[in-house]
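Open question from group meeting: does this chain pack into something compact, or does most of it stay loose? Before anyone orders reagents, we agreed to write out a predicted structure and look at it together. Recording both the input and the output here so the notebook holds the full record.
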Amino acid sequence: MKLYYAPGVCSIGIHVLLEEIGKPYELEAVNLREGAQYKPDYVAVNPKSKVPALVRDDGTLQTEYPAIAFWLARTNPFSNLLPDNIDLQARALEIMDYCVATIHMQGFTRIFRPGNFAPNPADEEAVKARGKEIVEKGFATLNAALEGKDYAVGTFSVADSAIFYVEFWAGRMGMTLPPNCAAHLERMKARPAVQRTMQQEGVA
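Structure tokens returned:
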């Protein structure tokens, strides 16, 4: 397998899952700041011009965070990335999708790229403020979901990899996480797979 990633972006969660699985894989960094995702070499790999992208051992491409995470979990059942219980599986997928589709795409993207939501530069601060509201509501929702638990569905799962990357972003931005999320982030940072991932990506 080969993971196309950029240090510290959402692909860090998929990187963590690959480390949790423990099978051999390759890494190739995509320099998003320099626009490498739009250049012909990368577009030939992933026409969507985004990361993460995973090239499977058979040479086929898998894209989109939830789909990659689900595929890794189902093709590596020994890694216990999804619980056996169907209700807990659904809950894990629900939480993962909420992190990606709402907290990340609706919240953090407004903060990071307000111009995508406001053609008029004068409106960008309002867009950022709305993004912060979405992120804060998201973490309040995650905080409730983590109440009394070490991990989102009791044991580590694909959901925690997505929770981790949005928590990680919040930490780097100096945002104050609610207590259960803050404890979850520290718990994640203590996992050897996360430590290896962060070291390989050169982020802290």
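Observations to bring back to the group:
The chain has a mean pLDDT of 97.
The chain is about 55% helix and 5% strand.
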